[in-house]
């Protein structure tokens, strides 16, 4: 049944209750609250006594979640009972080799067969007891809409760069199928929740079928240790952004702690989507790519999966393999064999491969009768018109080639379209002088790796074939640029599969290359494949996941957002929301108050088109300023003319413009400028440089202030703007190295300003002036929203620790938005700031006040 804690979320996401599924019959140990006691979570009931608490709780556990369990299933014809066996070829089973021997691995997923409802409880118990597998038992309707519908007809084509431009070219987005996808992910998540010990277990979710599952788990357990690996390509942002549920899927993935990809290209596309669609920034942190998401750092892992060497070598040692190999050698005696092994789908490029073979025979008649392409076609994983059309085209081209260039004794193309046992594939790999993988788009594709191991052979296979163990081994690979394994095979001949001529030339080169060169390439590839096997991949991923989760319990976590927009905010333990009652209480019992307010993003929203303060804000500021116990300052990066105009009705309000370069204590006092850096000649150097970048970056602009220059790129392309900002930062730091100016990068800006000028300086001046006048502050409040305000927070904390202060004042440093900050408090947005100011204004006791005692020049405090 559906977990109670997820009912509202699921109803919002899918609009229905589709989850009447049986529970995992034997509850595994989950949360240990007191030694020996299992807490009753999520309605599961207490431990039923069948599981060994003491042994399981001390073992390290990994929960592997994937669409399909690594099992074979079939009915016994005699007693009609289900028989199950491990799928030794499943990567999910093989990755266990990367874990320590005392690690318990539990699998959650579906079976490849439909189990009748009356048998599900018995089957689930057997699978848990015998194989440590927890089946999900999706209903036939959900399974069809989830897997054959949303996964195969919408996600799979899109992730392989195929858009549904017309009804005959892919299926348009269907929300019913999306709801089934969410339903299935919810079912998988519920099964994980039934068995997880969230404090200790690591969860590793696999592939595009389960991309929103992390959201369900993260909502239930904010600190769950969760990794995700995508085995398919991730498309460029131009393709991905066409998906109507793009944000939900991105946020689902971002609820993991570590996200893995086969290649940097796939990771780069994902990061670009996060930047363009969610406005998130990323950076390299000690060699690891980290993406900041509401205080959590989501790490990106780039490592292609490997193969299981032992499994392949054991197949090569089978007598059936050596027998088949001898049979193939006899069949193709005197001919060079090219092998291809692909699933039957439109992205594998089988027809393009055949066209290249046709072109090779046409352009090089000497090859006729001497070269054979053996194309093994694995059964299609999906169904649809596109698969049937691809199959029809493949047969037509193969028939045409054989009719044109073949004879009774020679067929240039041998098409094997049937389930081929592993030993037979291994034999073809071992015989072939060249292997070609010509996919137009593929996630990883391990065919080249398997080919290399089979060409290397084993001692037992050498003995069976009468081959010397130390005889040189050769292999040649022709691989598409668009497959995940291509970057790791530097000695392969890389091709654009759409360029038929180039692929034909590559095949010719591979067949005619001298043996010494083939041997060198083979040795290089084999060293990589044998050292970067599936165990290495699993071990490396889990080590990075452990590192990504090490700070989980050093921060405070809480969830925000509804439905699939849920995310966890993770911040330092002392960081909390500023309570209006708390600060008003402190405000009432103090009498010498200093109040510092940032402007943009603090008292007016960043998104506001009209940047002038509202009448409500003006009224509150006047109320605060009228209280003789208060000194109130607006501290902004804006120019003094704008601030003077906007706050002309605030007689007693202090203003600090351009981050404190200009300061005014009240409306009737004069603006005074800082003498820390009176030399502004550097502007003549910096402005032409900024102008160059403005002309080269569409959407960027320069803001010229009296004391500073700011280059804005908020309206530029996110990736190009960010790249140009980094270049501009380096350029300006270089040309201004000997000038009294500093270059800083902020959110969508690069700013050059005088040395020593900061908002923190304003806070220091005001507090020191109050001290010098015999009115040391006993209440200091500072509110801001961006990086420049962090200087104020830091300065206040430093100033109040000064020995000249008789007592330590009440400090309220507050940032706007829940994000990492030097401030101790936060408020969610500008509306919260306004409410707080209203509360303080209502608590003020205004009396006539005089300004002269607080007016001071910069010179007197320097």
TrEMBL record:
Gene designation: TPS9_2
Similarity comment: family membership: In the N-terminal section; belongs to the glycosyltransferase 20 family. In the C-terminal section; belongs to the trehalose phosphatase family.
The protein's name in its UniProt record: Alpha,alpha-trehalose-phosphate synthase [UDP-forming] 9
Superkingdom of source: Eukaryota
Pfam families: Glyco_transf_20 (PF00982), Trehalose_PPase (PF02358)
Organism, as annotated: Stylosanthes scabra
CDD domains the record matches: GT20_TPS, HAD_TPP
């Amino acid at each position: 049944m559906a977990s109670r804690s997820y009912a509202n979320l699921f109803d919002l996401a899918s609009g229905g209750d589709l989850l009447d599924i049986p529970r995992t019959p034997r509850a595994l140990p989950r949360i240990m609250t007191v030694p020996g006691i299992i807490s009753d979570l999520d309605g599961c009931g207490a431990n039923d006594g069948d599981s060994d608490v003491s042994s399981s709780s001390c073992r390290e556990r990994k929960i592997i979640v994937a669409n399909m369990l690594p099992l074979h299933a079939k009915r016994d014809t005699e007693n009609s009972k289900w028989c199950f066996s491990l799928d030794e070829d499943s990567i999910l089973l093989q990755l266990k080799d990367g874990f320590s021997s005392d690690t318990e691995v539990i699998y959650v997923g579906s079976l490849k067969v439909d189990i009748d409802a009356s048998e599900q409880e018995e089957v689930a118990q057997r699978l848990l007891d015998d194989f440590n597998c927890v089946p999900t038992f999706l209903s036939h309707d959900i399974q069809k809409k989830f897997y054959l519908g949303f996964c195969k007809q919408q996600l799979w084509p899109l992730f392989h760069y195929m858009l549904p431009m017309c009804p005959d070219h892919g299926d348009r987005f269907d929300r019913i199928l999306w709801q089934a996808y969410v339903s299935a992910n919810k079912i998988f998540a519920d099964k994980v929740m039934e068995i997880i010990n969230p404090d200790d277990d690591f969860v590793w979710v696999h592939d595009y079928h389960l991309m929103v599952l992390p959201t369900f788990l993260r909502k239930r357990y904010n600190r769950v240790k969760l990794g995700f690996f995508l085995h398919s390509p991730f498309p460029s942002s131009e393709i991905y952004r066409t998906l109507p549920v793009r944000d939900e899927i991105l946020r689902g993935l971002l609820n993991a702690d570590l996200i893995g990809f086969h290649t940097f290209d796939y990771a780069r596309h994902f990061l670009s989507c996060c930047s363009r669609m969610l406005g998130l920034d990323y950076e390299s942190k000690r060699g690891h790519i980290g993406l900041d998401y509401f205080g959590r750092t989501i790490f990106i892992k780039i490592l292609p999966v490997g193969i299981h060497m032992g499994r392949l070598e054991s197949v090569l040692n089978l007598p059936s393999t050596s027998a088949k190999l001898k049979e193939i050698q006899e069949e193709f005696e005197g001919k060079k064999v090219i092998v291809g092994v692909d699933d039957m789908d439109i992205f594998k490029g089988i027809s393009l491969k055949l066209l290249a073979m046709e072109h090779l025979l046409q352009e090089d008649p000497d090859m006729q009768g001497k070269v054979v392409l053996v194309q093994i076609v694995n059964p299609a994983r999906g169904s649809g018109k596109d698969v049937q059309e691809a199959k029809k085209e493949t047969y037509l081209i193969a028939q045409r080639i054989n009719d044109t260039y073949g004879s009774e004794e020679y067929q240039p193309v041998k098409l094997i379209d049937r389930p081929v046992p592993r030993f037979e594939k291994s034999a073809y790999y071992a015989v072939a002088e060249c292997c070609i993988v010509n996919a137009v788009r593929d996630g990883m594709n391990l065919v080249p790796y398997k080919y290399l191991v089979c060409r290397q052979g084993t001692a037992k296979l050498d003995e069976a074939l009468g081959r010397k163990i130390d005889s040189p081994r050769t292999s040649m690979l022709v691989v598409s640029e668009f497959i995940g394994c291509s970057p790791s095979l530097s000695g392969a001949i890389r091709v654009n599969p759409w360029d038929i001529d180039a692929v034909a030339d590559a095949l010719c080169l591979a067949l005619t290359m001298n043996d010494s060169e083939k041997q060198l390439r083979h040795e290089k590839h084999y060293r990589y494949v044998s050292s970067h096997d599936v165990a290495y991949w699993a071990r490396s991923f889990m080590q990075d996941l452990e590192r990504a989760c090490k700070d989980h319990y050093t921060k405070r976590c809480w969830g925000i957002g509804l439905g699939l927009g849920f995310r966890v905010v993770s911040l330092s333990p002392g960081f909390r929301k500023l309570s209006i009652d708390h600060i008003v209480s402190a405000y009432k019992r103090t009498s010498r108050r200093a109040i510092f307010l940032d402007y943009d993003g603090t008292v007016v929203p960043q998104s506001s088109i009209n940047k002038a303060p509202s009448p409500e804000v003006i009224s509150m500021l006047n109320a605060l300023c009228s209280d003789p116990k208060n000194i109130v300052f607006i501290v902004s990066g804006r120019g003094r003319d704008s601030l003077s105009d906007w706050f002309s009705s605030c007689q007693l309000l202090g203003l600090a413009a351009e981050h404190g370069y200009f300061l005014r204590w009240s409306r009737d006092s004069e603006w005074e400028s800082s003498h820390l850096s009176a030399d502004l000649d550097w502007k003549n150097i910096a402005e032409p440089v900024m102008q160059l970048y403005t002309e080269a970056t569409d959407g960027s602009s320069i803001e010229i202030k009296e004391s500073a220059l700011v280059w804005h790129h908020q309206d530029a392309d996110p990736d190009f703007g960010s790249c140009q900002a980094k270049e501009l930062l380096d350029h300006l730091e270089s040309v201004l190295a000997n000038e009294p100016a500093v270059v800083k990068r902020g959110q969508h800006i690069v700013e050059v300003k005088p040395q020593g000028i900061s908002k923190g300086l304003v806070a220091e001046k005001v507090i020191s002036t109050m001290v010098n006048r015999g009115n040391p502050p006993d209440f200091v409040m500072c509110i801001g929203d961006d990086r420049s305000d962090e200087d104020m927070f830091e300065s206040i904390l430093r100033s109040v620790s000064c020995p000249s202060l008789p007592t330590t004042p009440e400090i309220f440093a507050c940032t706007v938005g829940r994000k990492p900050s030097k401030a101790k408090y936060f408020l969610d947005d500008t509306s919260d700031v306004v409410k707080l100011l209203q509360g303080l204004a209502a608590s003020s006791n205004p009396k006539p006040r005089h300004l002269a005692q607080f007016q001071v020049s910069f010179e007197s405090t320097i």
